[in-house]
Design a protein that fits this description.
By secondary structure, this protein is α+β, with helices and mostly antiparallel strands. The chain contains 7 helices and 23 strands. It has 2 domains: 7-48 and 151-213 and 320-377, FAD/NAD(P)-binding domain (3-Layer(bba) Sandwich), CATH 3.50.50; 91-143 and 220-318, 2-Layer Sandwich (D-Amino Acid Oxidase, Chain A, domain 2). Helices cover 24% and strands 27% of the residues. It has an 8-stranded mixed β-sheet. A 6-stranded mixed β-sheet has the order 9-2-1-13-23-22, covered by helices on one side. Helix 1 (15-26) links the parallel strand 1 (7-11) and strand 2. Helix 2 (64-81) packs across helix 5 (150-163). Bound molecules: flavin-adenine dinucleotide. The site of flavin-adenine dinucleotide (FAD) has 38 residues, from helix 1, strand 3 and strand 21.
């Protein structure tokens, strides 16, 4: 690194800012990465034991090349951090063949020639007895999908960034951000910092960042629940892939046992309620939510004890079209925004880190991010 290398300030080191710090630092930038809390904290969007990684994407085929590159970078991060982060246990989408998610994954797999299997209800009952299917339902298997571990991922990326020279400033909330001639001035804990370029990756705190006030980001609560497995061995990643379950009575994502005790489900059918501010994230839920989540488990996951052993609450920022906002920040020079990941940003985080580094250092990227253009939400868009 030379002192003439650009000085880049990153605001927010959840998974997105952590990956940007890593990819920028290894490419020679002088990185200063700020966070109000410490790496791996549980108040934002990047914690809670597990995340889904999929390669066949119901959200749109344009993500397929990004997912491929993300998969390579997850492996690279595992190698440099000497931690297991992504376990390729496979991934299931389960439901009626005409459900839009099943239709979308089949279409994506066919269009991009991606490996997959389709099981009818009796084949699924033999292979994945952990899930109860109704007659006529099917299972779509994405064999290259897997489960990610969020806390080691964030900490590993920041450790790799620090080894490449980045300064990681935990408990530094940026409370003032001012564009100066050709750069930026930032204030945290009463101290002033300067940078040539800023990367804004504040996750669900985006509405509180004045420079991002024009973006329609809604903060919502997501509430995973853990249910003890009766037969733990049958619910570990070598036997239970990650899953997205679609059923008339319930919809949820489902994660294998990683803690030696419990399967995690995220009940989608119970909603992701809006929050005024991540600071107001309630740490508990009402009894009705617990009863409804337990009923879904009793109905569709017969190998689990249908009463949660633990519940977590997390905040995430959603955009109106459920696609992230990634690109140069309109109306400013030398600022890049990555926010609004709408409940599906984790698996792609390393490639978004690479994209951030491309945009900061070269003003462009080879990756196709047209659908994520910040201008679609601004007057110019
Ligand atoms: C419960 C849950 C389950 C999910 N499941 C999946 C899944 O299975 N697969 C998947 O791909 N995605 C999933 N997602 C989505 C994914 O986890 C998020 O899209 C991703 O973690 C967003 O990361 P982020 O870095 O943008 O936000 P965050 O992790 O919230 O990070 C933002 C950081 O910015 C910091 N910050 C904010 N303002 C300031 C400031 N002024 N100064 C300094 N620091 C600041 C915050 O402290 C925070 O650390 C899930 C999300 C949740 C909540």
């Amino acid at each position: 690194m030379t002192t003439s290398a650009p000085r880049i300030a990153i605001v927010g080191t959840g998974v997105i800012g952590a990956m940007a710090a890593w990819r920028l630092a290894v490419r020679g930038a002088r990185v200063l990465a700020f966070d109000s809390y410490a790496p791996g904290h549980d108040r934002g969007a990047s914690a809670g034991e597990s995340r889904i990684f999929r390669t066949v994407y119901k959200e749109g085929g344009s993500y397929v090349p990004l997912l491929r590159r993300a998969g390579e970078l997850w492996r690279e991060l595992e190698a440099v951090s000497a931690r297991e982060i992504l376990t390729r246990c496979g991934g299931l989408t389960i439901g009626a063949p005409e459900h839009p998610d099943l239709v979308a994954v089949r279409r994506c797999a066919e269009e991009y020639g991606l490996a997959h299997e389709i099981l009818d209800d009796s084949a699924a009952a033999a292979r994945f007895p952990q899930h109860r299917l109704d007659p006529g339902e099917i299972v779509f298997l994405d064999p290259a999908a897997g489960v990610l571990r969020p806390e080691p991922a964030v900490q590993g990326a920041l450790a790799a960034a620090a080894s490449a020279g980045a300064e990681i400033l935990s408990y530094h909330r940026i409370d003032e951000l001012t564009e100066t001639g050709g750069g930026w001035r930032l204030r945290a804990n009463g101290e002033t910092f300067t940078a040539d370029h800023v990367v804004l990756s504040p996750g669900p705190w985006a509405p509180a960042v004045r420079a991002l006030a024009g973006f329609p980001i809604e903060v919502r609560r997501i509430t995973p629940c853990w249910f003890a497995a009766r037969d733990v061995a049958a619910h570990r990643p070598n036997r239970l892939p990650i899953a997205i379950r679609r059923h008339p009575d319930a919809g949820f994502s489902c994660f294998p046992v990683l803690d030696g005790v419990a399967v995690k489900i995220v009940p989608h059918h119970l909603g992701f309620p809006a929050l005024a501010d991540p600071a107001e994230l309630p740490r508990s839920v009402d009894a009705e939510f617990v009863r409804a989540a337990s009923a879904a488990v009793a109905r569709l996951l017969p190998g689990l004890v249908p009463a949660p052993v633990r519940i977590g609450t997390y905040a995430e920022g959603f955009t109106p079209d459920d696609h992230a906002i990634v690109g140069p920040l309109p109306g400013t020079a030398n600022a890049t925004v990555l926010t609004g990941f709408s409940g599906h940003g984790f698996k792609l985080a390393p490639v978004f880190g690479e994209i951030a580094a491309d945009l900061v250092l070269h003003g462009k990227t080879r990756h196709d991010i047209g659908a994520l253009d910040p201008n679609r939400f601004t007057r110019e868009g």
